């Protein structure tokens, strides 16, 4: 894997505006896209990966099997078609996709193959009487214009990154955090100084595991603000999880791993507001550097921390040390759904978190949320209904 430089790209494809006729064709496609739903995008991904196996590292098998990726893509296509005349209502959505692409190290040269497969799938699934030369031209131009926008947004981010591609790192330390969680400390093989990430960012890492034909990509939060020129990632063992099994059972100090630069938009923001952190299981890893910053800045910090038991709880000793150091400015409420409770950090309940536990949160609070998808969706929806802004990252296709 080589590390290259990047530059801003304004128009990768020839820029050509859509005609009024083209625009009408795209708008008229919306009801059919809605009818086809994930059938279209599921077929797209299957055909893409069959015809272009080199794309497999970009996609998580679980997200494909559970149709998370196809669902978010068909939602995106429908919104794009509806807003084809003015993309302003969905520009934030587009920017989030561009940021995800930067983390995965998607390159401009990937877009022609993606477009070719997408247009062919649209041609195959749309009613034959609608698929004529102008229809194909309209969708081809619409795709190329969207690709140009994404490539430009991505290239603007790439030029700000300390490297482009996946860089060699060496494992310097391994540390057990609890019964099923392990931390890895990594440093650049070339000895170069690591850039300081924003608190809350993650590393996108590529793994070529024994017996696998293709590399596997995983995103891991940087779980400690860097010290000693090392990044730390913290990984929970998942039965059947290819990479987590390898990390827990096979990786050793001195091994070489590959990582992209720090990425992610769900980052800590300094202010005088009270901080509320909602952590489900290993989601706490993304929040650790933020909790440290909030306490250091003198803010009031409250952590609602959900785990199965104290046996599977990471960083309990660290939080206990914060409690001793910062007293009432740091409050922890643990929700332990099953198993024994030994050495709680602060206040705790032997049950799962409920929505009523969130009623103390007010719109003036800074709220950060990371955890399992169902946990996050439940909390996000509840707080949004109360006009409370939540900063979060689903680490994969966003729930819709």
TrEMBL record:
UniProt-listed GO biological process terms: cellular response to nitrosative stress; nitric oxide catabolic process; response to toxic substance
Cofactors demanded by this protein: FAD; heme b
Top-level lineage group: Eukaryota
One MF annotation (Gene Ontology) recorded for this entry: FAD binding
Annotated EC: 1.14.12.17
Domain FAD-binding FR-type: 164-269
Name of this protein: nitric oxide dioxygenase
Source taxonomy: Eukaryota, Fungi, Dikarya, Ascomycota, Saccharomycotina
